[in-house]
Design goal:
Length: 415
């Protein structure tokens, strides 16, 4: 039986470098929004429309992850609501919604405290939303976060969802002034392939949040690092190095906070007096690899197979994996892998799968001009190609799509 006294004693950090680790929790509301004055002004200007009798039907708030979209939009809208009697704001995160019906129901829940039953359908839910909004102040902003998680499902088309939300009969009948702020990573029209009917009902207002550069990331992180760590536990040069790396790689506050937290844990485990550059490097290396490995393990079989082809050539005598490779080299590598016939992919199939992999951010491609051979597409992994080989055995063991004996015996082809 486990002795829990021993267990907790063994796992307690002695001489921890942290004094208040919560300061590094990305879910924690910052006291102050730093460095987003332009975006705060844009949102404030839009909200001030209330005093002139106009709010846009939609505002797209977009930009890469961890760039402060949610925190900034919520803060400015909240502060405006606190100063304006005729205005209210509600926030709904749609990340976990598996269907358009559940997304609408989530909005219903936020406005009324209850959900509607499935038998009432999307119409019933929207009717409930309009009824609830009648009791709201004259102007309402509904912030819909992670709206890009809304996808086509078997029952509803996102176009219907948006059309109802923007121009639903119940809304028009009641003359409701509802403005929807859509928070997402991409511009929605592009991402969700919205049709022209919906697009014309949207207002085209946009607020863009670019990735953070070094100076802004430094201003956001400094107070949190100071609060989280013991005095002197993150020397200036190490802090600056971490910020520079985080800005260069991600421009994302959430990832930057995680980098410093994990580097601090590594330094504590190693019994160091302070975090070092090596602790940051080790964290970058493992988190990068872990994240990619997870993505690789979740790939459909054909996509994974193509990656084994992209990484299937070894340079002699260096022993390095050849990068970049061409589409024909990928196909040739797959043909040398002793694959069962049903797994042999045509050049065209490989091309399509490479496009998918590029969309997923797993490969980069470009076209090189090769004199008489014409233009040739070059393909390489966006991460260390060795990681595909490292994960191979696990992929074969964990995937249930193939008989492990029949494929992927030895992807290593000499070049
Ligand atoms: N300008 C800022 N000032 C202070 N803290 C910030 C700022 N930007 C981001 N943060 C911190 O980073 C966290 C993540 O930001 P936020 O959730 O707003 O990002 P996001 O752009 O909405 O990301 P995602 O697209 O992944 O949802 C916030 O909770 C906050 O702690």
């Amino acid at each position: 039986m486990t002795d829990y006294d021993d267990l907790f004693a063994e796992t307690a950090a002695s001489d921890s470098l942290f004094v208040d680790k919560r300061a590094l929790d990305p879910l924690r509301e910052p006291d102050e929004i730093v460095a987003r004055s332009e975006q705060q002004q844009q949102v404030a200007r839009l909200l001030n429309g209330v005093h002139e009798g106009y709010l846009p039907t939609t505002v797209s708030i977009y930009g890469p992850p961890g760039t402060g979209k949610t925190v900034t939009t919520r803060r400015v809208c909240g502060e405006f609501a606190a100063r304006t009697e005729t205005f209210a704001v509600e926030y709904v995160n749609l990340k976990e919604c598996r269907s358009l019906f559940s997304a609408a129901n989530e909005i219903h829940l936020e406005l009324t405290g209850t959900k509607r039953g499935a038998y009432e359908g999307l119409d019933g839910v929207f009717e409930g939303i309009w009824e609830a909004l009648e009791a709201y102040p004259e102007w309402t902003v509904l912030i819909l976060d992670e709206i890009d998680h809304i996808q086509h499902d078997s029952n509803y088309d996102p176009n219907d969802f948006f059309y109802r939300l923007l121009r639903g009969e119940g809304k028009l009948k009641r003359d409701l002034n509802l403005s929807v702020f859509l928070v997402s990573n991409e511009l929605l029209e592009v991402d969700l392939r919205l049709d022209s009917r919906v697009k014309s009902a949207m207002d085209g207002e946009e607020v863009f949040f670019p990735p953070y550069g070094v100076a802004l990331l430094e201003r956001i992180l400094r107070p949190r690092i100071e609060q989280a760590f013991r005095d002197g536990a993150v020397p200036d040069a190490v802090f600056e190095y971490g910020v520079r790396e985080a800005a260069r790689r991600w421009g994302d506050v959430r990832k930057a906070l995680r980098l410093f937290r994990q580097a601090g844990e590594t330094a504590t485990e190693r019994g160091l007096e302070a975090v070092t550059r090596e602790c940051l490097d080790a964290t970058i290396e493992t988190t990068g690899k872990e994240a990619v490995t997870e993505k690789l393990l979740a790939l459909p079989f054909n996509h994974f197979l193509v990656l084994t082809g992209v990484t299937g050539w070894t340079e002699r005598p260096s022993g390095e994996i050849k990068q970049p490779v061409t589409t024909s080299e990928v196909v040739a590598s797959l043909h040398q892998q002793n694959l069962a016939e049903e797994f042999l992919l045509s050049e065209r199939a490989v091309r399509e799968l490479v496009t998918d992999l590029e969309t997923m951010g797993l490969v980069d491609t470009w076209v090189d001009s090769r004199g008489r051979e014409g233009r040739v597409k070059q393909i390489e992994t966006s991460f260390d190609p060795q990681w595909v080989r490292d994960v191979l055995e696990r992929y074969v063991a964990e995937t249930e799509q193939v008989d492990p004996e029949s494929v992927l015996a030895d992807p290593d082809v000499g070049s």
